[in-house]
Design a protein that fits this description.
heterodimer, A: 281 residues, mainly alpha, B: 294 residues, globular
Chain lengths: 281, 294
């Protein structure tokens, strides 16, 4: 094929896409560096100001008049981090062992259990809001990390992914382990777990983001200021109709809420893309 | 599918399954059963007494003009979000598949919204469109549009659609790109040699081969628009003004949590459950077929 000029059209369209995606994020970044008066008397300038340090310090440690007293963004960040990590690690842990049981053993009711896990795909939190809340309330888990995380850590998707992968582990490997006298736990720990590293990394990214971005569930099960997650905190900061919105603080908080999951996606892009495309099959 | 070589163990497999099963039973099956039970009973708001009323809750829900309105809003919302997010995702994927230089940059930026929470995406767009403050609302005023989504229901719906679609572009982009890259290059080159131009190749070869991906994404996007957009609605409009953006999931939450209509909310939950089950079934039937062909 003869050498052609660079085809500009795709670049033009992609730059438009980059614009659509980046513009709201950019404006938020800029707003977090401006004094609140400059935002309120809009239109706000589109170049960064000099108040960044103050906005972020206020958001992180001072709290805001619109927040339930005692809530500061640093505390919310911690809650979100705990929630995202417990959900990601918990989901991976309980899914990998249940998939291991279903694939590497034969026992009565095996398929019944498998289908029970599978069916949870069809019961997202959103369709059983009130009864699930009631169960958590009856167990005394409202306003605790337990209530925030445990009800979300059953995962059909992760179990299915691990099952799919375990079915491809060669029989020879299992036989060799058995000849060497390794029991099922030894084989899991020494062979299956190391082989699953890529899958675990991919799932971790997806589930970390899933946990961090939860909205409806924390809205239901947390009441106290000290248990608020950052995504919920932003909504509280926006305040009611009568309250004055401190936009610079809201925007700094929004940036802080986006930063960790975006960092995780960008840093682990390779695993994430592979994992996402595979786990949804 | 089964493995040939397995381990022996009587108690161990049950122990390994136990954590997942306990969580599933306590937080999935029991509440789902409760929702079904509540949907056929009438309860006072404090849960002190209840009596069986059959399908009364359901008849009440489906004849309630507010519910029918919410149904229409949900339909418009889902079609718009799915359409916009898929069209843009496909457009950017096709373009990203054609460039060599800078592809990594485009990919990295276009992936970012995937990591942003729906509620946060709502706040980003809320800030751009906030009357009297937002950059875009000033532009709109400048070209003569009287923009105030807090008063105008149509404008509010447009805003939540934009915020929800924006977040979903990444996902569609990613899957369309993976789909495009799995199409054999020889097929496209053969068509090019036969004299088919770029647009002809796209419509007659690439698009048909992408249709499995597109169908999968269609289901995923509808599920997203139905359920995951709760955060967008709550953060941006809280269902208002005058229920203009009250999608079904938001109504379940509002009726159950704020209006304390337990039976009505449960009946709505059961209806939504039927929707999810139908969508999941469609998706899995399709996946099965695809596996069969390949």
């Amino acid at each position: 094929m003869t050498r052609r000029r660079i085809d500009w059209l795709p670049h033009l369209i992609l730059l438009l896409g980059v614009g659509i995606v980046a513009f709201p994020i950019y404006v938020t970044l800029v707003a977090s560096t401006l004094p609140v008066a400059e935002i309120e008397h809009g239109p706000m300038p589109l170049v960064p100001g000099t108040q960044a340090l103050q906005s972020y310090r206020d958001a992180l440690f001072m709290g805001s008049t619109n927040l339930r007293s005692g809530a500061v963004v640093s505390g919310m960040l911690l809650n979100s981090l705990v929630m995202a990590l417990v959900i990601a690690v918990g989901k991976i842990a309980i899914s990998i062992i249940s998939a291991y049981a279903v694939v590497f053993f034969r026992f009565p009711l095996r398929m019944v259990f498998f289908w029970m896990i599978f069916v949870t795909l069809m019961l997202p939190v959103e369709v059983r809001i009130m009864p699930t809340y009631k169960v958590v309330a009856d167990l005394g888990m409202v306003d605790t990390y337990w209530g925030l995380t445990i009800p979300l850590i059953a995962s059909a998707t992760a179990t299915l992914l691990f099952r799919q992968f375990f079915l491809t582990v060669p029989d020879e490997l299992v036989e060799a382990a058995q000849i060497d006298g390794a029991g099922p736990l030894r084989f899991f720990w020494d062979t299956v777990l190391p082989l699953s590293r890529t899958n675990i990394a991919a799932l971790f990214v997806i589930l970390f983001i899933y946990g961090w971005n939860q909205y409806l569930w924390p809205l239901l099960v947390t009441n106290s200021a000290s248990m608020t997650t950052i995504v919920i905190g932003i909504k509280t900061l926006l305040g009611g109709a009568d309250a004055q919105t401190e936009w610079n603080i809201v925007m700094a908080t929004t940036v802080l809420a986006m930063l960790p999951p975006i960092a995780v996606v960008l840093l682990m892009q390779r695993w994430f893309v592979k994992g996402l495309v595979e786990s949804e099959k | 599918m089964q493995r040939r070589v397995i381990f022996r163990g009587k108690l161990l497999p049950y122990l390994l399954l136990a954590p997942q099963l306990v969580v599933t039973l306590v937080f999935f099956f029991w509440p789902a059963a409760q929702a079904i039970w509540q949907s056929v009973h009438r309860q006072d708001p404090f849960g002190l007494s209840s009596r069986f009323i059959g399908i009364d809750n359901f008849t009440q829900v489906v004849t309630d003009p507010n519910y029918l309105h919410s149904l229409v809003v949900t339909a418009i919302f889902s079609v718009a979000v799915t359409g916009i997010a898929m069209a843009l995702g496909l457009l950017f994927a096709v373009m990203a598949d054609r460039v060599l230089r800078g592809a990594w940059f485009y990919k990295a930026v276009l992936l970012a919204p995937y990591a942003v929470a729906p509620a946060v995406s709502g706040v980003l767009w809320l800030f751009l469109f906030a009357p009297g403050i937002g950059v875009v609302s000033f532009w709109l005023n400048a070209i003569g549009i009287d923009w105030n989504f807090r008063l105008d229901g149509t404008q509010a719906l447009v805003l939540v659609i934009v915020a929800s679609a924006w977040k979903q572009i990444s996902y569609n982009f990613l899957f369309f790109l993976a789909g495009l890259q799995s199409i054999p290059k020889s097929l496209i080159e053969a068509a090019a040699i036969d004299g088919a131009g770029a647009s002809r190749r796209f419509w007659t070869i690439i698009l048909p081969l992408l249709s499995p991906t597109a169908f999968f994404l269609l289901v995923v996007n509808i599920v997203y628009a139905f359920f995951d957009t709760f955060g967008v609605i709550d953060a941006v409009t809280s269902g208002g003004p005058v229920n203009a953006t009250q999608i079904l999931v938001y109504k379940v939450y509002y009726d159950g949590r704020i209006a304390l209509d337990i039976g009505g909310s449960a009946a709505q939950s059961v209806i939504l459950m039927a929707v999810v089950i139908a969508l999941t079934a469609i998706q899995f039937r399709f996946v099965e077929r695809r596996v069969h062909y390949s």
